[in-house]
């Protein structure tokens, strides 16, 4: 009977149609027991004690334990040799009961596992049923239900076939197989219905256009007929007039002569009037040109005025910095003067004590007086306090110069060392209790070297009040790194060579500029006897541009719908030396989940580089940080709080909307740019964070209000060329897209299919006949893209030969009408581009070939990927992936001017 249950037929009739026969493979229905389990069951139980359920197994186990306990209490040694057989029987009984207890415990474990799998399968099935009951379910809903039924079936198959639940698991598997088939069938039906609806809508649209065409033709015929009648009527009137004119000819001859004279006079006047009008027009044209010249001159004057104002602003900033520097020097001078007065006072007091302790001088001794020895005072040689000011990876006397004034180009750097790694609910900088550094290797070292003169003094480290909440300081002792009280209340552990470690709890942001003033003070008897101050700053967070080498490409596994895309992605990426990381169950648009960046710190013989990613705030529970292949090198931070955006602007905060240029004049580490949709720009807190880093800003806003996604990576991309350090900028061009179609039609390819296999599939001629679509794209070029190009040339100092206008067309709501080739990913000399599915001319995709021709001078190799799944969701290759790029190997401070 059990063998019959292993082979089942599930006949599903959702709408009265037989779906198929499901064969349940015998080995796959339930899991086979292991060899140990089979051996464990080899010990037979009495038929009367065979359990039939898990509670009965528990009772049998307890009964066997009691029997063993009772048997253990009975002595097994016989007092007389004749009774030795009783001892043997006693031992045999003990062994038998022990073996039976082991067998029962093994079977209990199997039954508990089977029950757990049974309950898990039931949970998945309940979820699938709940999803299937959704009103008006879509194909995606049925697909989710199908996946849950499959998980439930796979879970049931984990139940061993010798468990009590095995028979019920087989029956339940057959039931779930039927439900799986129903879900599969409903998914296919939903997809068919959706496709039919789209086709019906297209047919209605075509019928409407045909009706409009017929109506236009009817009206044209009526107009021509009316014109014909009007011409006939006028001809009759003309003939009647001629007849009357002949009858009155003699009488009116003199009148006609007079009128002829008048006509000639009128013509003469008319010629004179036209000449005056021509002269007036020429005069107006000259005036217009003069106004244009004046307008150009005015704009030039405004530009010069703006430059003059900018120079004045920079001069004011320079003067302000000089004023601050003078103020700081004055404060230092006053501090040194105060210290000198304190030292002299201590010397005077010490001299008085020495004079009181010694006998009165004799005349001989007064002849050559010797001053009393003074207490050694702190001075730069014997009170050294500095970090790695010159950023050479070591701390020595050379770091004294300029240690009080920090800038991006000079001064000791502090590493961001997030102790929570984004796991805690309270920001690290708000946590006042600090026990030890999370990663000691990330601490920035500061040395305090003293002479023996300070052996009896107390040493304190204090930080300015603004920076104190945002940093932690530790002292290296024999017991490891110990936290330092930077309020000045608790002294350091004394040593003549003190090593301190400083870490930042956060990067610079809108509330803190990232700098800290650390002061070392020596006190004796409550009096300050020496002090010095250094200024340190947090190493800025930077984004690697698209032109940087790639180490890893990340993509989300969406199942069968993007399996071919992932396969093509691996084939294109892996030969370049980069890896492809496929993430299960992550968000579709990987580019939006996080922005991968890095931090640089100096080392003695090298440069320390750390990967730091900004995590997206949108749907944090569905958006875990994406770990790198080298997880220990990744730190994840979250800037700002999630925003409630309207549905139109919901994608504005995605990190696809935050990009950076390659190095450009004035910005050696690149410059950040982002999409501004007007009502909802990119997250202001993140923009303030970028601005606070001071190295890749100020960010440039680009008008993306007309795009569906509102993201700037839909229209702009920087692509490296074969020449090191050179690049081109690809920008979407609707005008180029329209011209490409006109070119094809002009060559006789109007009937060729474009957008092949997409929901927008049509022919070249049909696309051109959609005048509303064509006019919409030409409007976008003139009113949106052309101003953007001018702004990019002005802000990024681009030349015309660096700009490549890629053919693309946009729908009315701002989505790419065919796969967007600008939304691409440069990977180590290769460009990963969406397959535009353009017209096939002589076996070649005409749109693909156009992009190759555009990139040919730059020597860029192109790989086209089938991203049809993402295109139907209104996105493309870059939006679907994320990249980890190698940080810049040259220290950023070496690329910056002094005191930047």
Task: Describe the model.
- Helices cover 43% and strands 17% of the residues.
- It contains 18 helices and 29 strands.
- Strands 1, 2, 3, 4, 5, 6, 7, 8 and 9 form a 9-stranded mixed beta sheet that branches.
- A hairpin with a 2-residue loop joins strand 26 and strand 27.
- 32% of the residues are buried.
- Mean pLDDT is 82; it is low at 1-48, 358-380, 421-429 and 627-632.
Number of helices: 18
Structure classification = alpha/beta
For the termini, the CA-CA separation is: 85 Å
- Report the radius of gyration as a whole number of Å: 43 Å
Mean pLDDT rating:
82
Low-confidence stretches: 1-48, 358-380, 421-429, 627-632
Largest sheet: 9 strands, mixed
- Total strands: the figure is 29
| Bulk shape | flat
State the helical fraction: 40-55%
Q: What percent of residues are in strands?
A: 15-25%
Short précis:
This protein has 18 helices and 29 strands. It has 900 residues and is an alpha/beta fold.
């Amino acid at each position: 009977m059990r063998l019959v249950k292993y082979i089942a037929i599930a006949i599903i009739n959702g709408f009265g149609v037989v779906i198929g026969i499901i064969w349940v493979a015998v080995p796959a229905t339930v899991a086979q027991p292991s060899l140990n389990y089979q051996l464990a069951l080899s010990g037979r139980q009495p038929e009367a004690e065979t359990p039939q359920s898990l509670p009965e197994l528990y009772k049998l186990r307890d009964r066997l334990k009691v029997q063993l306990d009772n048997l253990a209490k009975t002595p097994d040694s016989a007092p007389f040799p004749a009774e030795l057989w009783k001892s043997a029987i006693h031992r045999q009984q003990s062994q038998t009961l022990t073996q039976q207890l082991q067998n029962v415990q093994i079977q209990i474990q199997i039954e508990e596992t089977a029950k757990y799998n049974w309950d898990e399968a039931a949970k998945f099935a309940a979820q699938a049923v709940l999803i299937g009951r959704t009103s008006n379910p879509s194909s995606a809903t049925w697909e989710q239900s199908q996946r849950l039924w499959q998980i439930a079936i796979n879970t049931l198959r984990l139940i061993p076939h010798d468990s009590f639940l095995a028979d019920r698991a087989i029956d339940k598997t057959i039931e779930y197989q039927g439900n799986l088939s129903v879900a599969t069938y409903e998914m296919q039906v939903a997809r068919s219905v959706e496709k039919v609806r789209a086709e019906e809508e297209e047919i209605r649209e075509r019928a409407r256009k045909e009706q409009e065409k017929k109506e236009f033709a009817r009206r044209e015929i009526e107009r021509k007929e009316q014109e014909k009648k009007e011409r006939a009527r006028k001809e009759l009137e003309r003939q009647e007039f001629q007849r009357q004119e002949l009858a009155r000819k003699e009488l009116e001859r003199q009148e006609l002569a007079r009128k002829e004279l008048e006509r000639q006079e009128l013509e003469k006047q008319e010629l004179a009037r036209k000449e005056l009008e021509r002269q007036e027009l020429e005069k107006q044209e000259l005036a217009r040109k003069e106004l244009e010249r004046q307008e150009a001159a005015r704009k030039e004057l405004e530009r010069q005025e703006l430059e003059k104002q900018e120079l004045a602003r920079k001069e004011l900033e320079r003067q302000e910095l000089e004023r601050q520097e003078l103020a700081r020097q004055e404060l230092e001078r006053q501090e040194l003067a105060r210290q000198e007065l304190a030292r002299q006072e201590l010397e005077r007091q010490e001299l008085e004590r020495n004079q009181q302790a010694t006998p009165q001088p004799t005349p001989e001794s007064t002849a050559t007086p010797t001053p009393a020895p003074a207490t050694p005072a702190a001075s730069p040689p014997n009170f050294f306090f500095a970090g790695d000011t010159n950023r050479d990876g070591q701390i020595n006397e050379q770091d004294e110069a300029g240690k009080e004034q920090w800038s991006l180009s000079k001064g000791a750097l502090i590493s961001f060392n997030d102790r929570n790694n984004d796991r805690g609910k309270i920001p690290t900088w708000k946590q006042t209790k600090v026990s030890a550094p999370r990663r000691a290797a990330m601490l920035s070292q500061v040395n305090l070297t003293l002479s023996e003169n300070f052996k009896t003094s107390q040493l304190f480290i204090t930080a300015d009040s603004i920076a104190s909440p945002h940093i932690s300081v530790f002292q290296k002792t024999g017991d490891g790194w110990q936290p330092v009280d930077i309020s000045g209340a608790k002294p350091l552990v004394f040593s003549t060579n003190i090593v301190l470690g400083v870490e930042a709890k956060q990067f610079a942001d809108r509330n803190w500029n990232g700098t800290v003033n650390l002061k070392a003070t020596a006190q004796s008897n409550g009096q300050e006897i020496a002090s010095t101050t250094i200024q340190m700053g947090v190493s800025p967070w930077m984004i690697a541009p698209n032109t940087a080498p790639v180490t890893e490409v990340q993509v989300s596994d969406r199942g069968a719908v993007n399996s071919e895309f992932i396969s093509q992605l691996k084939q294109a990426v892996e030969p370049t030396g980069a890896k492809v990381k496929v993430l299960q169950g992550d968000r579709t648009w990987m580019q939006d989940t996080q922005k991968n960046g890095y931090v640089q710190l100096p080392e003695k013989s090298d440069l320390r580089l750390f990967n730091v990613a900004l995590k997206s705030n949108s749907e944090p529970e569905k958006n875990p940080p994406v770990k790198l292949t080298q997880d220990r090198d990744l730190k994840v931070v979250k800037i700002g709080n999630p925003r409630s955006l309207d549905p139109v602007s919901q994608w504005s905060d995605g990190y696809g909307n935050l990009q950076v240029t390659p190095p450009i004049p004035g910005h050696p580490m690149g410059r950040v740019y982002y999409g501004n949709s007007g009502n909802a720009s990119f997250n202001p807190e993140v923009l303030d964070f970028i601005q606070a880093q001071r190295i890749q800003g100020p960010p440039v806003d680009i008008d993306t209000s007309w795009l569906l996604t509102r993201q700037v990576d839909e229209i702009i991309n920087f692509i490296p060329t074969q020449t090191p350090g050179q690049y081109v900028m690809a920008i979407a061009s609707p005008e180029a897209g329209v011209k490409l179609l006109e070119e094809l039609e002009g060559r006789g390819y109007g009937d060729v299919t474009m957008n092949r296999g997409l929901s927008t599939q049509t022919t070249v001629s049909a696309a051109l006949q959609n005048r509303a679509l064509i006019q919409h794209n030409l409007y976008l070029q003139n009113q949106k893209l052309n101003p953007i190009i001018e702004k990019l040339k002005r802000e990024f100092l681009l030349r015309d030969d660096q700009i490549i206008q890629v053919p693309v067309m946009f729908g009315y709501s701002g989505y790419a009408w065919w796969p967007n080739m600008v939304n691409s990913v440069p990977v180590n000399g290769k460009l990963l581009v969406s397959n535009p599915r353009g017209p096939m001319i002589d076996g070649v995709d005409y749109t693909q070939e156009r992009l190759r021709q555009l990139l040919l001078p730059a020597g860029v190799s192109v790989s086209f990927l089938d991203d049809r799944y993402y295109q139907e969701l209104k996105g493309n290759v870059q939006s679907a992936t994320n990249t980890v790029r190698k940080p810049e190997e040259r220290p950023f401070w070496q690329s910056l001017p002094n005191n930047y």
